Amino acid sequence: MNFEPFKLVPVGHVRKEGETFIEILPEFGEAMDGLNEGDWIKLILWFHASDRPERRSILKVHPYNNPANPLRGVFATRSPVRPNPLAIYAVRINRVEGNRLYIDWIDAMDGTPVVDIKILVERLDCPEKSPEGVVNRKGT
User: Does 60 have pLDDT greater than 90?
Assistant: First the structure.
């Protein structure tokens, strides 16, 4: 298959300066309207440090980069090595100051591009059971 590339633009960056926060770029400041302390959001990040052609072609990994774990398809893991190195985090906003959303620590590097932010909707993002009644397993 031949796919056409498409463009994602960062709306901000992860910053780690004593505390962890998302620094929203000035041109996207109005998009923060309605976000408040205590809100849960989903961050969609581009793991730019993992974005190399040879890493995009890896389709199976040892979870947690531990060879003792059996190989799994990257879609069944949270590995940064994947066809599109996106990362998704559910985080609580601890406080909002200007163009900064202060959050708890996440394992993204300082400077990691944030490509989108969405509010967390419990019925869509945190189902207890699948439609078939199977409880979701913990991610690897």
Answer: yes
